[in-house]
TrEMBL record:
Occurrences of domain ABC transporter (ranges): 357-593, 1021-1258
Subcellular location: Cell membrane
Statement: the UniProt record of this protein carries the keyword Transmembrane: yes
Protein family according to the UniProt entry: Belongs to the ABC transporter superfamily. ABCB family. Multidrug resistance exporter (TC 3.A.1.201) subfamily.
UniProt cross-references to PROSITE patterns, sorted A to Z: ABC_TM1F, ABC_TRANSPORTER_1, ABC_TRANSPORTER_2
UniProt membrane topology term: Multi-pass membrane protein
Protein name (Swiss-Prot/TrEMBL): ABC transporter B family member 9
Length: 1265
């Protein structure tokens, strides 16, 4: 979606949106009927409102002039008309809303389906260059909702409002054009004020949003890298920075309060002024032009009704504009014709396919990287039934061959032939069915194992599926699963291990029974055991098929019929293994040598070393625990859902936001949450008020203003009803009274302006202060939580940021806004009742009985203005999940020709939401219709009762209208303010979650000042019988009874396989976690006894992913020293870290901003800045966690030099994969199965036969690239 803005910014005008009628281009006959009915009914509903004003004015004249004895029969006639109108409008309103909601829902679902269908048929290049999964899902869930909004009930609403507007003004001019003209002249003033008001409010609110966004950034930056913050004891600094940002936000909150108060006050004042003008001028017309009272009131109410309707059309117009803009991009995609179309049925189909493959003089560049030539004149031929293996360094173009054979891309020049026919001539769907693909990252869909396998063949029988599973060596593990073949694999297959996923992918390929099999690194991501099993499965299915293999591990391809060595897009040699190995200088022999790692001597080993370090990293990266800072894809997918959100937040692209929490917490999380809900609900309002205690005087003043504000509506009713009566007075009284009541209305307007401004300003101050206080208290608490708290996905940086921003404002609405509303409503009720009961208690009682109906009607009307379309996003989540799976793995969908299958699944998932939408339409229509029936029937009833009382001498004309207006206007006032009112439940939950956090007591509290401090630190560290489990994975025992002594000033290297939790030792020494049992000592004193902040000051941590803050280089380095560092100290540190030269060479030197997460610098530069930061601290203990693993050879050398200088005379604990580092260590300790298996110097450990260390080293030497 970002692209749309950018690409269109140059020409973003009218051409970036669809014309309005085009939105309906996907409607069918039913939709057209629905839209027709909806339109007619909307016009009827709209016209009725102004028509009732005529009847109302007749009613007034009846009351004003009729002889009391005939009153009942006259009024009864008019009341009956009201009842008829009620029934008519009810039906029309029901049909209007339900027709439009239903047709909107139907058409939006159809557009979604068409969009997905079009997306699935696009060529792969389209996904490389023009779109992302996030964008597609964003469009399907976000944009279709905007489109639905623009073509659903909003259209009906707009037609209704416009017909009310036209009808109102038509009637006003017909009944009294002169008065109408005078009133019209003041309408522009109202529009201008409203507009200016809205603009200013938007400006203020965006300024506030900006400040809060910056504060949110601080949260994100702090929580996201909490380990770095904790290890440098930077909590206090983070809190101060956050407070500074909050100050700015507070100021804009207050201004916003004032602005909204002034705006609301001004608008009300102008409206009251208009009424004043109307009463004064209307009286003049009665005296001079022979108007009657009914006509004057009729004109006033018609103009008001029409004007208000016009004002209410703006949300509809906004929705139309948004929908038209959203539709532009979607419709553009729907109409896009792909270069290769899987739905296209033209093209050659062979009766039988032998499977001969030939690439002839192929030239190719990826569309996404047009400047990189992959193949220039590449040729390769594979005879039918033979196995060809492609080998070469990474990036040499091996996988590209497979993409060309699947026809994901067409070559720029040259041909790809199968059985001598150019691939472009075949029917795309047919040829893809003959080719089976198993890729490096097996892509599974969030469905059952059975469904995943049956992607291979449309109508596969259970026997065929079973056979495929057995051939793929997968039967054993599937049968062990509780649900067997019906087991759900989780999103992206996260519930299964790599080997299991790969075998299911192979079963899927076998089921397809392809003539040509393509294996792209099919076993690279597996450990040795799974690899053997998967390899066997592959051997089973390669027989009698033409097979093309891409592999890194040469052991897997020795038996291939043809081995082709690819180097930089050229075929450098080909032959069998035995032929190629004979040439010792050939490319293949060199590759083999590289992998066997014969060069034992360190000097010659540097090449292998780098390759090995890299490869080790690849494998380690894949399986390291999710808590490690490796950004492997799997980490992202199976990590917290917030990391998706954080990413999407950062790159302006929503990634699939459906990483379901179920997977994270297991199935039973529901029960746990319910229990939490129970404890949550009980929040004492007193405690909240206590947080706001320093603003009590402000709140009291604000409440007084709110009380006065509440009286405004009943007072208006009183003045209006009196004014109606004066129209029937003799001229001289009329003159005097009209002037008096007009001035009263002007006065009321002035009071409203003052009161509304004061009320909103004061509540803005109190609310702003409360938000500020809650946020800073909560953030302070968050920063000092123990690290294990952040391991819980619920507390990821995105979640904490959201909690801080939404919770605080929800609580504010509970205290400030809700309080203002309650007081305002109470005073409205009291005043309304007082006026009506003093006027006529009998009538007041009768009207009170039916008032709830009027109140309900007002509430329903307000809700209708907001819109009924239930949050379709949530409804369509499951369907979006299907789409997101399919688009995210479009290559798999394409290669299995599963487009139709995906569409069927998608349609099936859309059925429920569509039915729900239709039901929703009918319900909301019924509600809307009922609201009209209630309104007109209660009016008819009240006037009839009034007539009875007047005829019996129990009431007068004036009293009837006084009671009626005082109560109905009060009811309308209350219902409209309540509908605008905040959601108290949200506020309650938010308050509960905030207090829950504020009351929590972290076990490792970095804010506490208690604990011992040593005058001098030697740096002896000892771990005694330590056992440990991570809180988030209580079933995995990390250490059992681990003992390790780290002598002062020595270098200790921790080595071991990946996943042996070497980094956890460092976390325990930093006291990020406490061991479950056993002790950790520093200089003979247990870590728990030290003051935490002092302890962390003694240690310098450099981790694998260097974490920098979005500040200047200087600020990042100075972060290492509490209380600031001098220029000389900083330069000394950077020189020691080998960083001074490159920093000085930058245009801004030390003032260069490093960008978010340090993105402006290379890996090696970031790492050296992180080292400088650790050096500046001058720690006694240095902890290096894979500090060089993520770097390329050159940077690694530079950083390693820096580290070697720094380690001198410090106790150093190193976690590393690098041989040279391990060899230089004083002690190497091998971590295996949660204990130290061996320890000693490199030479000693190498002599142990079959030792863990020795085998690790040899594995390292023999590692592949």
């Amino acid at each position: 979606m970002k692209e749309e803005g950018e690409s269109g910014s140059g020409r973003k005008g009218d051409d970036e949106k669809v014309s309005f009628y085009k939105l309906f281009s996907f409607s069918d006959e039913v939709d057209i009927v629905l839209m027709f009915v909806g339109t007619v009914c909307a016009i009827v509903t709209g016209m009725i409102e102004p028509l009732t004003t005529i009847i109302f004015s007749r009613l007034l004249n009846t009351f004003g002039r009729t002889d009391p004895s005939k009153m009942i029969s006259e009024v009864a006639k008019i009341s009956l008309i009201f009842v008829y109108i009620a029934i008519g409008t009810g039906i029309a309103a029901f049909l209007q809303v339900s027709s439009w909601v239903i047709t909107g829902e139907r058409q939006a679902t159809r557009i979604r389906g068409l969009y997905l269908k079009t997306i699935l048929r696009q060529d792969i290049a389209f996904f490389d260059t023009e779109t992302t999964t996030g964008e597609v899902i964003g469009r399907m869930s976000g944009d279709t909702i905007l489109i639905q909004d623009a073509m659903g009930e909003k259209v009906g609403k707009f037609i209704k409002l416009m017909s009310t507007f036209i009808g109102g003004f038509a009637i006003a001019f017909a009944r009294g054009w002169l008065l109408s003209l005078v009133l019209l002249s003041s309408i522009p003033l109202l529009v201008l004020t409203g507009g200016a008001m809205a603009i200013y409010m938007a400006k203020m609110s965006s300024r506030g949003q900006l400040a809060y966004a910056e504060a949110g950034n601080v949260v994100e930056q702090t929580v996201g890298v909490i380990r770095t913050v904790a290890s440098f004891t930077g909590e206090k600094e983070a809190v101060e920075k956050y407070e500074r940002k909050l100050e700015v936000a507070y100021a804009s909150t207050v201004q916003q309060g004032l602005a909204s108060g002034v705006g609301l006050g001004t608008i009300l004042a102008i409206i009251f002024g208009l009424y004043a003008l109307a009463i004064w001028y209307g009286s003049k017309l009665i005296i001079e032009k022979g108007y009657d009272g009914g006509r004057v009131i009729n004109v006033i109410i018609s103009v008001m009704t029409g004007g208000i309707s016009l004002g209410q059309t703006s949300p509809c117009l906004n929705a139309f504009a948004a929908g038209q803009a959203a539709a532009y991009k979607m419709f553009e995609t729907i109409n896009r014709k792909p270069r290769m179309d899987p739905y296209d049925t033209s093209g050659t189909v062979l009766a039988d396919i032998r499977g001969e493959i030939e690439l002839k003089n192929v030239y190719f560049k990826y569309p996404a990287r047009p400047d990189v030539q992959i193949f220039s004149g590449f040729s390769l031929s594979v005879p039918s039934g033979k196995t060809a293996a492609l080998v070469g360094q990474s990036g040499s173009g091996k996988s590209t061959v497979i993409s060309l054979l699947e026809r994901f891309y067409d070559p720029d020049a040259g041909e790809v032939l199968i059985d001598g026919v150019n691939l472009k001539k075949f029917r795309l769907g047919w040829i893809r069915e003959k080719v089976g693909l198993v890729s490096q990252e097996p892509i599974l869909f969030g469905a059952s194992i059975k469904e995943n396998i049956s992607y291979g063949k449309k109508e596969a029988t259970d026997e065929e599926i079973r056979e495929a599973i057995e051939l793929a060596n997968a039967a054993k593990f599937i049968d062990k699963l509780p649900l067997g073949i019906e087991t759900m694999v989780g999103e992206h297959g996260t519930q299964l291990s790599g080997g299991q996923k790969q075998r299911i992918a192979i079963a899927r390929a076998i089921l397809k029974n392809p003539r040509i099999l393509l294996l792209d690194e099919a076993t690279s991501a597996l450990d040795a055991e799974s690899e053997r099993i998967v390899q066997d499965a592959l051997q089973n299915i390669m027989t009698n098929r033409t097979t093309v293999i891409v592999a890194h591990r040469l052991t897997t391809i020795r038996n291939a019929d043809i081995i082709a060595v690819v180097y930089r897009g050229k075929l450098v040699e080909q032959g069998t293994h035995t032929e190629l190995i004979k040439d010792p200088d050939g490319a293949y022999s060199q590759l083999v040598r590289l992998q066997q790692g014969k060069n034992e001597a360190e000097d010659q080993a540097t090449d292998t070393e780098e390759e090995a370090a890299k490869s080790l990293n690849i494998e380690y990266g894949m399986s390291r625990s999710s808590r490690s800072r490796t950004l492997s894809l799997q980490g992202l997918v199976s990590g917290s859902s917030a990391s998706w959100r954080a990413l999407s937040f950062r790159y302006g692209h929503p990634l699939p936001n459906d990483v379901h929490d179920k997977d994270l917490y297991g199935e039973d999380s529901g029960e746990k949450i319910d229990a939490e809900e129970e404890t949550r609900k009980k929040v004492s309002i007193t405690r909240l008020a206590y947080l706001n205690r320093s603003e009590i005087p402000v709140l009291l003043l604000g409440s007084t203003a709110a009380g006065v504000h509440g009286v405004v509506f009943p007072a208006f009713g009183l003045i209006l009803s009196t004014a109606i009566k004066i129209f029937h007075e003799p001229p001289h009284e009329l003159r005097k009274d009209s002037r008096f009541w007009s001035l009263m209305l002007v006065g009321l307007g002035a009071v409203t302006l003052i009161v509304a401004s004061v009320q909103n300003y004061l509540f803005g101050v109190a609310g702003g202060k409360l938000i500020h206080r809650i946020r800073s208290l909560t953030f302070r608490k968050v920063v000092h939580q123990e690290i294990s708290w952040f391991d819980d996905p619920e507390n990821s940086s995105g979640a904490v940021g959201a909690r801080l921003s939404t919770d605080a404002s929800a609580v504010r609405s509970l205290v400030g806004d809700a309080l203002a509303l309650v007081i305002q409503n109470i005073s409205t009720v009291v005043a309304g009742l007082a006026i009506s009961f003093t006027a006529n208690w009998m009538l007041a009682l009768v009207i009170l009985a039916v008032l709830p109906l009027v109140g309900l009607q007002g509430y329903l009307q307000m809700k209708f203005m907001e819109g009924f379309s239930a949050d379709a996003k949530v409804m369509y989540e499951e369907a979006s999940q299907v789409a997101s799976d399919a688009v995210g793995s479009i290559r798999t969908v394409a290669s299995f020709c599963a487009e139709k299958k995906v569409m069927d699944m998608y349609r099936q998932k859309c059925e429920g939401p569509l039915k729900h939408g239709v039901r929703q339409g009918i319900i909301s229509g019924a509600g809307f219709g009922f609201s009209f029936i209630a309104l007109y029937c209660t009016n008819a009833f009240c006037f009839y009762i009034g007539a009875v009382l007047v005829q019996n001498g129990k009431a007068t004309f004036e009293q009837v209208f006084k009671v009626f207006f005082a109560l109905t206007i009060s009811a309308v006032g209350i219902s409209s303010t309540s509908a605008m009112g905040p959601d108290t439940n949200k506020g309650r939950d938010a308050a509960a979650s905030i207090f829950e956090l504020l009351d929590s007591k972290p076990k490792i509290d970095s804010s506490s000042d208690e604990g011992a401090i040593l005058a001098t630190v030697r740096g002896d560290i000892e771990l005694q019988h330590v056992s440990f489990k991570y809180v988030t994975r209580p079933d995995v025992q990390i250490f059992r009874d681990l003992c390790l002594t780290i002598p002062s000033g020595k270098i200790v290297a921790l080595v071991g396989e990946s996943g042996s939790c070497k980094s956890t030792v460092i976390s325990l020494i930093e006291r990020f976690y406490n061991p479950d049992s056993g002790r950790i000592l520093l200089d003979g004193v247990e870590l728990r006894k030290f003051k935490l902040s002092w302890l962390r000051q003694q240690m310098g941590l450099v981790s694998q992913e260097p974490i920098l803050f979005n500040e200047t280089i200087r600020a990042n380095i100075a972060y290492g020293k509490l209380g600031g560092a001098t220029e000389d100290e900083i330069i000394e540190a950077t020189k020691a870290a080998n960083a001074h030269n490159f920093i000085s060479a930058l245009p801004h030197g030390y003032e260069t901003s490093v960008g978010e997460r340090g993105l402006q610098l290379s890996g090696g530069q970031k790492q050296r800045i992180a080292i400088a930061r650790a050096i500046l601290k001058d720690p006694k203990i240095l902890l290096l966690d894979e500090a060089t693993s993520a770097l390329d050879a050159e940077s690694e050398r530079v950083v390693q030099d820096a580290l070697d200088r720094v380690m001198v005379e410090r106790t150093t604990v190193v976690v590393t994969h690098r041989l040279t580092t391990i060899k230089g260590a004083d002690i190497s300790a091998v971590v295996k199965n949660g204990v130290i298996a061996e320890k000693g110097r490199h030479e000693v450990l190498m002599k142990i036969n079959d030792g863990v260390y020795a085998s690790l080293v040899s594995l390292h030497m023999n590692s592949s690239d």
